[in-house]
């Protein structure tokens, strides 16, 4: 298979995607500065994206196999975004080529009674990846500084002491998230956080599509109508959360997601770059065990078929 598209964009050119959309935590962060339609000036088309995504999935499969085989590191992928931002589709298309034995997805819904009597990070820590594995959070610990920030009445269910919803309260939650992610990083987990950034108009089009096509109406929920009314509040909450929690050990990437195929390329290239940074090689096999395998192979070859 060719390693480039008809407009001469190669897999090597995609390296820019792994750095272009990373938030620089040394600079002020404003979500309005990130264009949901940006295409990194690569001039790609949707059909180009499909070719490059297929090639990228082949590279990802090799790297994921090495991660699983070595069992010395892990990866946590956090996907956040407004309704219809493309989180489910990103998971489906990006991870479709990897070994399912080494990858799992956790979707965090509204916490139940058992979860509400624990700290907000309790259920998150339980779902964190074991060594050698990739875990994807479809929504995550950030729901507790996004949804609860927009709807502070939800905090009343959490059995919390002291004042809730104050500036100091949110600073404390950001601190907790940073410390948790730093802890994961020191345990050998690569933490990558993606904000799938769509425009309000693009969300409108996608929600209309779900309503217009009856077979897609199962994707629609009553909360989609309610939450869209809080668009501006959510934009502010995302901006604050990203600004307070993007660090070298757990960076945020603001992915232009108005074009789903391009968002998937950005996500997969970022994952590939992070896994390549581990410089992992196939595990070395003990010489005695290797010899026993050679002997076993010879024994099998002598058997009658």
UniProtKB/TrEMBL annotation:
MF term (GO), any: kinase activity
Keywords per UniProt: Kinase, Transferase
Pfam families referenced in this protein's UniProt entry, alphabetically: PPK2
Domain Polyphosphate kinase-2-related residues, every copy: 46-280
Database matches in InterPro entries: P-loop_NTPase, Polyphosphate_phosphotransfera, PPK2-rel_1, PPK2-related
Family: Belongs to the polyphosphate kinase 2 (PPK2) family. Class I subfamily.
Protein name: Polyphosphate kinase 2 family protein
Species in which this protein is naturally found: Acetobacter conturbans
Upper lineage: Bacteria, Pseudomonadati, Pseudomonadota, Alphaproteobacteria, Acetobacterales
């Amino acid at each position: 298979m060719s390693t480039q598209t008809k407009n001469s964009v190669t897999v090597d050119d995609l390296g820019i995607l792994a750095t272009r959309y990373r938030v620089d935590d040394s600079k002020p962060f404003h979500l309005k500065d990130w264009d949901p339609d940006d295409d990194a000036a690569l001039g790609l088309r949707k059909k180009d994206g499909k070719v490059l995504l297929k090639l990228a999935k082949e590279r990802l499969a090799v790297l994921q196999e090495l991660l699983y085989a070595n069992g010395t590191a892990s990866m946590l992928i956090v996907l956040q975004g407004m309704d219809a931002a493309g989180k489910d589709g990103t998971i489906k298309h990006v991870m479709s080529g990897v070994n399912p034995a080494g990858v799992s997805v956790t979707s965090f819904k509204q916490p139940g009674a058992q979860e509400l009597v624990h700290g907000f990070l309790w259920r998150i820590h339980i779902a964190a990846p074991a060594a050698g594995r990739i875990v994807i959070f479809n929504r995550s610990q950030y729901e507790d500084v996004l949804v609860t920030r927009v709807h502070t009445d939800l905090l009343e269910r959490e059995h919390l002491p002291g004042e809730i919803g104050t500036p100091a309260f949110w600073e404390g939650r950001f601190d907790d998230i940073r410390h948790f992610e730093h802890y994961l990083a020191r345990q050998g987990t690569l933490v990558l956080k993606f904000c799938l950034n769509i425009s309000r108009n693009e969300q409108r089009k996608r929600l209309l599509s779900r309503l217009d096509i009856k077979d897609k109406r199962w994707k629609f929920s009553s909360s989609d109508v309610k939450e869209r009314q809080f668009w501006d509040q959510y934009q502010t909450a995302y901006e604050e959360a990203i600004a307070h929690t993007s660090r070298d050990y757990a960076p945020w990437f603001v992915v232009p997601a108005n074009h789903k195929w391009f968002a998937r390329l950005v996500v997969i290239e970022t994952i590939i770059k992070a896994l390549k940074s581990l410089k992992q090689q196939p595990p070395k096999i003990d010489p005695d065990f290797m010899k026993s395998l050679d002997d076993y192979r010879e024994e099998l070859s002598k058997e009658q078929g």
